[in-house]
Amino acid sequence: MKRAGEEGVALLTVLLLVAVMATLSVAVLDDIRFSLRRTANAEAVGQARWYALGAETLAKAQIARLNAAGGGRTTLQGGWHGRPLSFPLEGGTLEAKVTDGAACFNLNSVVQGVGEVLERREAGVAQFVALAQALDVPEAERLAAALVDWIDVDILRESGGAEDESYAEGGEGWLTAGTLLAEPSELRAVRGFEPGVYARLRPFVCALPTTELSPINVNTLPPEKAVLLTMLTEGRLPIPAGRRILEARAPGGWASTADFWEEPGLQDAAPGEAALAQVGVRSRFFALETEVAYLDAEVTASALLEDEGGRVRLVARRWGPQE
Fold first, then answer.
1. What is the CATH number of the domain that holds 11?
2. Are 78 and 128 within one domain?
3. What's the pTM?
4. Parent domain of 154
């Protein structure tokens, strides 16, 4: 009986060992399969990103050709502006879209200067207030003051603005940036820019890497952004009137800014010298949006490109969808 009992215990021990080894084998195989899948996904994402970078190279070449052929002007001829272009890939597709990157109010233009010398710019503040008021955004002056305080380097609070102590007392838990905005989504951290306010302003603002007023090209400005003409004229040109002017624009655009300001309805609404200087007929900044679907990977990227006298360079790149 004792020998039979020992054999039973030994058999039970063997069965337990087999069960444990089988469980470990399944776990190891799962880890191997997961690692292989993760590696394949990483390779697919990496390849998709390379395709997106290739789209940047193509866009740079196309922008250089576009401006070189324009004779000093950038127009909508050729249907390039906002037109999605699809390219088949082995294992996926690439879609790219180029638009004028300065058809917007530059949020960084509410200040002037460079580096650690950033101070309020009256012309930029006036344009922001005019834009906000045209969009029926309340308390435009207070929002402008808060934006100036967020970007400038001093600790002196603008009238109605918000410096470090305001954010400390309000419980936000952060300090003002003291530098230029890198992208418009940072606006959501500024005091007063609640979700509703941000959503209303977002289609018409940008964060260019300069404190200059946006170099707006009236030859490429879409009619749906006619509010920017209202902004430039400090409210003297109603949005519907600006839309009609842009909708009636000839395919070749205006030969000069003087021709543009001679349009009926604009002669009595001409802005100040600063706004006159920022309006042009040639585009300087271009926005590129790219979507790549490759195998099981999907990659979205956006880039800001600048034409510097025929040489197009990358200014900023962002992985992920626009916010």
1. 3.30.1300.30
2. no
3. 0.84
4. 106-213
